[in-house]
Amino acid sequence: MAFRQALQLAACGLAGGSAAVLFSAVAVGKPRAGGGGDAEPRVVEAPAWAGSARPGPGVWDSNWDRREPLSLVNLRKRNLESGEEELASRLDHYKAKATRHIFLIRHSQYHVDASQEKDRTLTPLGREQAELTGLRLASLGLKFNKIVHSSMTRAIETTDIISKHLPGVSKVSTDLLREGAPIEPDPPVSHWKPEAVQYYEDGARIEAAFRNYIHRADAKQQEDSYEIFICHANVIRYIVCRALQFPPEGWLRLSLNNGSITHLVVRPDGRVALRALGDTGFMPPDKISRS
Questions:
Q1: DSSP-H helix ranges across 115-183
Q2: pTM of this prediction?
Q3: Mean local confidence (pLDDT), 64-89
Q4: What b/e string do you get for 72-111 counting C-beta neighbours within 10 Å, with b at 16 or more?
């Protein structure tokens, strides 16, 4: 009960989009007693304060990143004497002109049994995987703008190896991309059941990472950009679902190999395409792992 009260208090300060995602992360049905293990359908209705943050099935929200030009213009300050010409000029000022190419890289294999995070370093195979991923990215011949990476040890080490193959590309560390439990998966799994509070804490952070890094280009950006984000499987899977406007609860249905490359494209009009999901075709079969 205390957790539910805390959720209600916290959610009052959230925008509709965050509220809907947060509510769906914790409000889930319980299995039906008896009946051979069958469960009632997990139907979740967002409360009134959540609003209609997520579109219905098959409906694309063109303003998903809140960067649709019309939503950035204060129509109350519109000069009625200037009319449509001034409005068109102002809309053009906010309109994105470039495409963002976002490469989401999962860290390489690491020592999963280490008791402390700082000791969860890459295995010898993991270091080989990072080398192969770096070579693959370099072979694309793209002018990468930056590398943003998780501040966890395995992501840092993966970044250090990959960056050797991309000289001159700046690196930025962030806690937002750290591994975590983004939202309770549907259907649930028996082998992984974090406490509900972990979804509450990690989910807000990972959603913040999505909003901060995944969006159409700034209107001032003139050329297409190519950005690398090196982080973790749960974070990448959640970001892919959110970017494609698929139900985020389905993130655990996706599977990613270590060192894999996921390629998202965000067009100036806000449309999103997935060009690759968890690609490790550039690795020999004996170098592929999923730990």
A1: 124-139, 153-163
A2: 0.79
A3: 69
A4: eeeeeeeeeeeeeeeeeebeeeebbebbbbbbbbbbbbbe
